[in-house]
Specification:
By secondary structure, the protein is α/β, with parallel strands linked by helices. It has seven helices and ten strands. The protein has helices spanning 61-68, 91-101, 117-129, 136-149, 165-177, 195-212, 223-226; strands at 17-30, 33-46, 50-54, 76-81, 84-85, 102-106, 183-187, 215-219, 231-236, 239-242. Strand 4 and strand 5 (84-85) form a beta hairpin.
Amino acid sequence: MNKTVTQIKPEQVPSDVMIEVKDLTKVYRLGTVEVPALCGVSFQIKRGEVVSIMGASGSGKSTLMNILGCLDLPTSGEYYFSGENIEGKNDDDLAHIRNQKIGFVFQQFNLLPRINVLRNVELALFYSNGNGGKTWKDTRKRAEEVLGSVGLTDRMHHRPTELSGGQQQRVAVARALVNEPDLLLADEPTGNLDSHTGAEIMHLLLDLNKQRNLTLVIVTHDPNIAAQTQRVIHLRDGEIVKE
């Protein structure tokens, strides 16, 4: 499993490349047993590209998504995000990248049920950068703008429990976009939705990609979702079998 990795200097990563991974491996240790999750994965994703990651359960999709989102580090190999080497980053560095440059959308909406939609999005902005010197009015205006961009102007004062599944996922998308990330990672974003609502969410994500040149990476089991992306990375047993 261990491979010789050719060192990639930051200046060698083209400026149009958002993600560069080289010979990534991830091994989980359960007592004395080693369980390989990724086995030498290499690929690039360009800025503004829409890419899906497909594979059966246990193929390594979630592990790869966690590494791309700086939620976890590989056992070996290299990961460059916007030309920046992730190796050696401490927890604070990784948190800064996640908070400022990456948005996350999950299958479970993960909204706070006791506060309204607007407050859910405002809190995401506050927690990620402590308001960044913005006033309360600035924070509210930004949250209102992003909710408007996903078609929820008339629902922002409702609680999540008062919304449909599709509307809740739109709130989750708005929350992910509020800090104007460079990369949006969507893990089964249509998994809890019916086919019609799922199609609406996918249409929304693709529109955001076009409007903002937002790099979009989607983990999905659904070949219909994958078919709408520009490229599909197929994983099997921790390896890329087709791209």
